[in-house]
Structure formats: C-alpha cells, structure tokens
Amino acid sequence: MSRVGKYPVAIPDGVSVEIANDTVTAKGKLGQLSAPITSDVEVTVEGNLVTVKPTKDSKKARALWGTTRALVNNLVTGVSTGFTVNLEINGVGYRAAVEGKDLVLSLGFSHPVRYPIPEGITMKCERPTAIEISGADKQRVGQIASEIRAFRPPEPFKGKGVKYATETILRKEGKKK
Known about the structure:
Blueprint: E1 9-10, E2 16-20, E3 23-28, E4 31-36, E5 41-46, E6 49-54, H1 59-80, E7 83-90, E8 95-99, E9 102-106, E10 113-116, E11 121-124, E12 130-135, H2 138-151, E13 161-164
Antiparallel strand pairs: 1-6, 2-3, 3-4, 5-6, 7-12, 7-13, 8-9, 9-10, 11-12
Pfam family, one: Ribosomal_L6
Subunit structure: Part of the 50S ribosomal subunit.
Protein name: Large ribosomal subunit protein uL6
C-alpha cells in the first residue's frame, strides 16, 4: 500500500488540471506543465482534488502509484507557486552575476564561466555570493542547480566552491607538520 499515493492532490485556485491521451496537464499563473501517465495507474479529477489509483495489483502498479501522485503534485505546485533552489559560493574572489541572458561565474579559473539561462527559468544574484534559481518545473530547476554546482563543487578542506544553501560540507583536517 502506497503511503504517498493514497492522499489526493489539492488543486489551488487559478490552476486547472486536465487529463487527455495518457497525459496530465496543469495550467496556472506560472505556465503549463504536463507529465505522461502509464496504464498501470488511473488519474481522476474530482472537483478540486486529483486522485491516483492503481489499475492492477502488481508490484509495478503499486510502485508507480506513489510516483505518479508525486509527479502530479509537482505539476500543480510548479504552476501555482514554483520551485526555488538557492546556491552559495564560498572562496576568495569567487562570485556570480547575471549579465543579460547569461549567468557569469568567477570560480578561480583563468576565465569566467558563462552559463546561459534557459527559457522558463529565472536566476537572481542578490549578493555576489548567492544565486537563486527558480522556475515551474522542479526537475529542470534541480538539474540546472546541479550543473552550476558541478563547475566547482565544494572541497572538504577549506569549503571553497559552489554549494546548496541547505548543504553542510563535512570538513577535513589539513596535513600536520
């Protein structure tokens, strides 16, 4: 029995959810998102609730029950409020700035790293050492944050690099004389 899948997804005001051709589509103030549905689960819209139920009693259907419910919840949340990931930059001379449609990072390389900002994603740099990535699609926001972090992951000795704001870096002790 799925612990996640049995709960219905509430649809907030200003969001519409439609099911057609094995696809769930959510429209809201932040845009439109869609996700495919497998034949192992049944998705229904009743009033302002979306319910997900398995069609068979197989292991795959039970596994996809909770997954599909989570995907539908991410669609509804994404088009109504959106998702945000915060990154922090630590290190002497390390900084970030948004220039036009590019994120420019100075990460200790001989050249600045330019990352083009994709459509549907907004980036802000309130401080030169903080990046805020926001958008409607949870997967894309997380993927972009991961790609930016991969340019200079935090190292364990001085903690220099790009890290998630919620991440804690396990620090190591340096060499002894």
